[in-house]
């Protein structure tokens, strides 16, 4: 090829490059979506980095998940793109570590006033960055208003510092009847997921106050027992397999375990049943270090209607047998009242013990 021909080819290539650059500038300014902003209708697709990419940048490839679910990281990228905010730091910058806990109750309005940015119904998301975790805080509850006020006075500031996109769901079991804490947590999970695309749930007893904000209420890789060190037990584990108090689990993990059992009416046994479900599902219980996973327990008298469950030991012998049919897929309840308060969403539920236990014992 002579010099004249080479020069013509070079000019053509130069024109093509300039045209491509101008088209790129035009469409990027017009808000055309990039790969990170796409929400795929096929939920079985995920974005993964190609191991063959060089150091200058990863190559994004699409691979199909075997279970047809969308991982939290991919779902999150869509949320991040839609808001146009940077991702929050891996380590929230405003954490204090050990906390002074408040023991006095305040009004719902005062608690909301103390936590700017809190939305009605106990919803919050960081204003200046996209949260890495969307978390439903589920509190099983009955007739403990003072304890709930003390908990939320302590909990909201901590969760805000942790830069979570979260909501507080108080599941209030209507009287009369025996208290069923595990079933209330199942109901809270279902009701929360109806309302928002939460990635995970934290199940939280109303009488446990966190003492360290580095105890992040995030979505764990494995089910996490958050309240490992409680002052009532001298900040030690009563036994190695304990899973009660405060715990965190992803949506996918909880659904695989079919949630908690619905059959534990009265006090005791439901957390040990859940620990067995975790093992049967192939998961392991994880914990933060004991100096971080610390809680104070609010002292209280035994609740009427929450006496010890005499069937708990018999039920614990049949966990594996019941797991597939006793849980999220066997819930029966009604919701007479939903109340949007400044600090939380109160969902009152009616449970019929005879209807739940019929033919299951």
TrEMBL record:
Signal peptide: none annotated. GO terms for biological process: carbohydrate metabolic process. It is an enzyme of class 2 (transferase). Its EC number is 2.4.1.-. The chain crosses the membrane at residues 7-27. Residues 224-300 form the Galactosyltransferase C-terminal domain. The keyword 4Fe-4S does not apply. It comes from Candidula unifasciata. It is found in: Membrane. Belongs to the glycosyltransferase 7 family. This is Beta-1,4-galactosyltransferase. Pathway: Protein modification; protein glycosylation.
